[in-house]
Design a protein that fits this description.
Protein name: Mitochondrial distribution and morphology
Number of helices: 45
GO cellular component, one term: NatB complex
Family: Belongs to the MDM20/NAA25 family.
Pfam families: NatB_MDM20
Organism: Malassezia cuniculi
Number of strands: 0
Radius of gyration: 32 Å
Helix content: over 70%
Strand content: under 5%
Shape: globular
Length: about 850
Amino acid sequence: MRIYYYHLRYMASKVGNILDQYRCAPIYTALDSGNNHSAIKQADELIRVGHSVQMARALKSVALTRIGAFSEARSVCDEILKGHIEMSMIAPLEFVLPRIERLPQLAELLLAMSGASPNDANLAFSAITALVKAKMYQRALQELLRRVRLTKSPRDFWQYIQVSMLHARQLKPSGAKLALQVAMRLLNEQNIEPEDFSDETLWLYLSFHKQLGAAKLKEAMEVVKVSAVQKLIESSLTLQFLVRECWEVLEDWKAIMDDCHRRIEMGDRNWAVLSAFVTAAAKSSEGLNDAVTVIVSAAEQDKWSNRGSFLAVLELFRSAQDAGISTECITKATSKSYAEHVNAFYIRFANKASCFEDLFPYIRKLPGGDFKRLEQVANECRTNLVDADGIQRHINAEKILFVNAAVDIDIAKHKSNELLKAYVESLANARLPDTEMQLGDDLALLAIYYLLLADKDDVQVLKLAAGVAAYGCSMSKNGYKLRITLIRLLLRLGSPLLAHEHFKALGVKAVMGDTVSHYVLDRNSTFGGSHRAHVEDMWTYNLEPFFRASKIELPEVIGQAFGNGKFSQVADLQAFDERLQRSFTKAQVQLDIIRAKITTNDLTEAEIPGTLETLSSIISQSKDGVIDDHRDLTLLPSFRLKESESLFELTQFAILRDSNWIKFVADYLENTLHQKGSCESTCEMTCVTPAEKCLFLLLSSVGQGDSADLSKAIGAFFDAIQTTVTESRDMFALYHGAWIILEGYHLLNLISSQDQLPRKTIAENFRKHTQQVKLVLESAKAAQEKEEMSTAFTTVFTSLDNYDAVNALYASILSEINTTITSIQKQINAIM
């Protein structure tokens, strides 16, 4: 939107601004044409000669913000806010202040302007919206309450209720209760008729009472019996979900059953409706028999060809078993046992891609003998891989056979070869465009799964599995499950840089960084200097811009939703905003970058204040328990009943980090950089690796006991890490130990710059133990170069007519290992 026209609404009431507009016309022209540097130059000239200084500064801040000079824009805005502000300056400041993280100042400014122009309703509303965007809810409530008393406007009243709910979420339980009770008194003063509700105000009304607790909610739910309200609910899925949630809070299972029953009778086969009906029936003391009749009738009406109603029958069995209720009535109504229904579902839907995933929760309930029968059924349904139908039948059969398969390495190699051969055949017979995932991708995934299940820690097995994944990725450019699996295998094999290249190939959107990036970034700091540049690039060019942009854009979107009365959107957007600000991924990557800089001795004195500020923020969030972990751990599937045998667990290369790890690392880094000496932490150390635990125990001994005790602790640390490196089974563990020993050395030196640590002891222990570490690294490099995989390679890959992708992968892994080991050796040599 052109700045010149954007500010006109403020000009009309201020005749004195005309001269400013005339003098600043060249700046407006430069801004409108996108010539921001010219706008800055012309604004500086006006400021220099003392003409229209405030207006020139405001427009200069717009140009500075556009070119990303946020620090300079802040300085300019600080000068503006010290002086007199005309109405014509509001528009540029509304653009700039949110983008330089000065929303509270904008809110205060608009409040002051509104006070000076009490008849300007638009300005008053802008002030309240700014308060909401700045999360200054208490001030917003004061302004809204004043307006409610003054105008009696329904819009002001409902906005007051909305803000009171947002405010309550910021407070501790006692304060939240008080805030909601104040709003409740105001609500009781209103004469609200059911016919007055819109879908948004009804959502707000019910959500507000839900937040107040069961007693108040029960009273409020009487309104859903009114015909006008029922019409609103019928036209809104959001309201339907909310109403069922309210009944669930009240444990009104009969109401849920009645509502869902009516919908099912009308032909609704939405799984949310079916599953809610079955769940309520299982929890109701009288509902199961009625539920059986309804669900079975729906399945029969659909001629057992609708996945939703068929699965609802299986869900009846499972829910009854979980609740300890007899399933005899279900068997009697359908003339089939639970196992027979599972088999029938498989036969009916074996050609569907979701068949196995649909059945997997119900397979868990099958006794061993019944599962054997299901395996027979799966084999009988298998057909040739000549088309999409045959491929899906083959995949679902293989998944069923894999669930309880006993696997050793010989079986795994043979089965992987067989599955890879089937994958090649599926590509030949039913290849989809490169823009699509290939139909047979899960055959290659199963080939990998067999190998990892046989021995997930054997380096040769990891390489074979990575080779299968690399071939699959070369054939299926968008096969995300294959590529994520390859990424995790590459990390275990010591190729983080190659893993990053494959992560880029996934094309992950910035908004998914908070939930997906851990597949390549988890434990990344263990690769130290060799990996740091890629991690920093991902942070600088992907994650940080997203978090920064979200911090600016989400309040704007929240303000728009608030102004338009989209109350349900405001709540969802606010929750999303809070989640991003407390992001686990954000804290984890920031800590990893700090550790990597320490490990490579690249953390400068000038960076320490900013680093301490980052650590302080992370520690504050972790202590308050508000770090939000939204990592999606389900992108890799599980075809086994044991959680420890999921594909995610089999490719996990260390203990999965959690919020305890965040607190643990932030604590010891802050103590070290503050040079406090002793490092203490109350967090559980179940989230750390043995090497990280050794590092923490060393740092916790600093400042405790005498010099002799500390010398022993230093010796024990280097000795323990040397053992970790010597006994490592894969490259991940080897790198991890090597970089931890470097991190420990540099952390001790940071502390010793002020404390009387035995620096001679530190240096002697480092030299003594790193000699052995260097030998292990050199031995690992030589072993990689000499390793032959001819027998295993031939066994697994005989069906391939082209090994280019596999050979290229192995060559890249070897090259990267050599580069990384050389990098570590250089770091060690620089100290010695």
